């Protein structure tokens, strides 16, 4: 629009004039403003608000939407209709402070490797960032152990019919009757004693005596265990 001033003037002389009220002028009052430049203005860039900074910590970016709009903001045009040289940025750097450092994350302890007595058990130890991604920035000096010693209680040994096989304690008088196993020197001594004298009869008796006294004590113990199982089955 363009404007102008319209006054009602009466001339008093060649160089003198007087301004009167509009009602004193008999002619139609001219307009004071009129439209100009009837062509529409070119499209222009319009920006929306910035988004939040991402990620939540450390260096990041925030974004916004930039549209190519008509001068009266009623129409949206493709970006090619607006001048590209003065397009506002759609991204800018931001920061919300330092992120928490990576830390060691521990898993649950596994089962003990030994079913009876001392063994070992394992667990997972991972260095993860605050986003849960693997990292190599955890202090190695503070790494928790991933293995420790464990102990399992030794219970009774089950057998086929569901009974429990337990060692049988032999009585003292029984142990006294069980011959112990001879050492190598004792075996040689018995054989030597048997060969002294005359005839092969002494040698045969010595060999029999060595065989009888060399029978292991474990045979007696196994016999006692079998008796225990038989008693439970009855």
Structure, described:
The chain is an alpha+beta fold and about 230 residues long. The protein has four helices and 15 strands. Strands 5-7-8 form a three-stranded antiparallel sheet, with no helix packed on it. Strands 1-4 form a two-stranded antiparallel ribbon. The longest helix is centred in the last third of the chain and has 17 residues, at about 215-234. It is rod-shaped, with a radius of gyration of 55 Å. It starts with a strand and ends with a helix. About 0% of the residues are buried. Residues about 160-165 and about 165-180 have low confidence and may be disordered.
User: How many separate domains?
Assistant: 3
- Sheet/helix structural class: alpha+beta
Summed up, the helix count is 4
User: Which sheet architecture does the biggest sheet show?
Assistant: 3 strands, antiparallel
The total beta strand count reads: 15
Globular, elongated, flat, extended or rod-shaped: what is the shape?
A: rod-shaped
Q: What fraction, in percent, of the residue positions are helical?
A: 10-25%
| Strand and helix order | EEEEEEEEEEEEEEEHHHH
Spatial ordering of strands, largest sheet: 5-7-8
| CA radius of gyration | 55 Å
Stretches with pLDDT under 50, minimum 5 residues: 158-165, 167-178
User: What is the arithmetic mean of pLDDT?
Assistant: 77
For the record, give the distance between the C-alpha atoms at the N and C termini, rounded to a whole number.
120 Å
Strand content: 25-35%
């Amino acid at each position: 629009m363009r404007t102008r001033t319209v006054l009602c003037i009466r001339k008093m002389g060649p160089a003198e004039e007087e301004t009167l009220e509009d009602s004193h002028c008999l002619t139609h009052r001219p307009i004071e403003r009129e439209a100009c430049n009837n062509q529409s203005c070119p499209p222009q860039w319009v920006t929306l608000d910035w988004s939040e900074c991402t990620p939540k910590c450390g260096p990041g970016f925030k974004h916004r939407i930039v549209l190519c709009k008509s001068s009266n903001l009623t129409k949206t045009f493709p970006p090619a209709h607006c001048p590209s040289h003065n397009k506002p940025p759609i991204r800018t750097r931001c920061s919300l402070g330092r992120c928490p450092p990576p830390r060691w994350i521990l898993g649950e302890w596994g089962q003990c490797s030994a079913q009876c007595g001392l063994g070992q058990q394992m667990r997972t130890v991972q260095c993860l960032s605050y986003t849960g991604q693997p990292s190599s920035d955890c202090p190695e000096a503070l790494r928790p152990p991933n293995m420790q010693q464990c102990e399992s209680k030794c219970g009774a040994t089950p057998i086929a019919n569901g009974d429990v096989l337990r060692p049988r304690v032999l009585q003292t008088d029984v142990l006294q009757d069980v011959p112990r196993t001879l050492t190598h020197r004792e075996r040689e001594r018995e054989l030597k004693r048997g060969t002294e004298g005359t005839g092969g009869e002494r040698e045969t008796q010595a060999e029999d005596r060595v065989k009888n006294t060399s029978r292991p004590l474990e045979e007696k113990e196994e016999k006692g265990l079998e008796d225990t199982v038989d008693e439970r089955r009855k």
